């Protein structure tokens, strides 16, 4: 399977990677739906309620308590999956990363063209005057974080439940997927919409799925690999060396 993946990568000139939480679990960031993920934590409300726009408006102190505790992960570093994707971009093969993750690890690994469908914990803005704040500002604040300029509430640039995706990010991701000759789906079960629906725009030659659990795209895929994505993308095979053996 690894050799088959490397052959596809070698033949491709316009790769797009579409990823989810499974890409970041190997960096120590919990997956919402895994056994040890946020859905199995004990709070007064389930995460999908707390991480909603309504809850942010009505119970902001509880929202930020949960957000600081569970959504800001300190010390996380890119894993082999992030690094390999950045390498493929430097080589001119990978044209875009479309991610559902909000941790900024693709950029930390060196990827330049990243469409963050659900925003990023690294960016925070005052809802009143638009002043920018970094992740540390939220992490080190108490109660409801307030803008030091105007006193407005500082909100993470993260798409909450009930909120729509950024139109510009969405259109860029769709255009990239439409142009791709190879689409690699990794670390996502394709259950979160509308993000999961983006794979339907792919019309290219090779569809690869790297995910521990089955996905809705498996039946369309040329190749399905049920292994941790960091492990798969770190096992780079030199096809030329194999030919000479």
From TrEMBL:
SUPFAM superfamilies according to UniProt: DHS-like NAD/FAD-binding domain
Cofactor(s) the record lists: Zn(2+)
Location(s), subcellular: Cytoplasm
Gene3D superfamilies: SIR2/SIRT2 'Small Domain (3.30.1600.10), TPP-binding domain (3.40.50.1220)
Enzyme active site: 118 (proton acceptor)
CC annotations in GO: cytoplasm
InterPro entries in UniProt: DHS-like_NAD/FAD-binding_dom, NAD-dep_sirtuin_deacylases, Sirtuin, Sirtuin_cat_small_dom_sf, Sirtuin_class_U, Ssirtuin_cat_dom
CC cofactor note: Binds 1 zinc ion per subunit.
The protein's Enzyme Commission number: 2.3.1.286
Entry binding sites for Zn(2+): 126, 129, 147, 150
Residues holding nicotinamide: 32, 102-103
Gene Ontology MF term list: histone deacetylase activity, NAD-dependent; NAD+ binding; zinc ion binding
Residues noted as binding NAD(+) in the record, renumbered to the chain: 21, 25, 32-33, 100, 102-103, 118, 188-189, 211, 229
UniProt keyword terms in alphabetical order: Cytoplasm, Metal-binding, NAD, Transferase, Zinc
Domain Deacetylase sirtuin-type: start-end pairs: 1-245
Catalytic reaction list: N(6)-acetyl-L-lysyl-[protein] + NAD(+) + H2O = 2''-O-acetyl-ADP-D-ribose + nicotinamide + L-lysyl-[protein]
Lineage top rank: taxon: Bacteria
NCBIfam families assigned: PRK00481.1-1, PRK00481.1-3
PANTHER family: NAD-DEPENDENT PROTEIN DEACYLASE, NAD-DEPENDENT PROTEIN DEACYLASE SIRTUIN-5, MITOCHONDRIAL-RELATED
Recorded family membership: Belongs to the sirtuin family. Class U subfamily.
Function text: NAD-dependent protein deacetylase which modulates the activities of several enzymes which are inactive in their acetylated form.
Protein name according to UniProt: NAD-dependent protein deacetylase
Record lineage: Bacteria, Bacillati, Bacillota, Clostridia, Eubacteriales
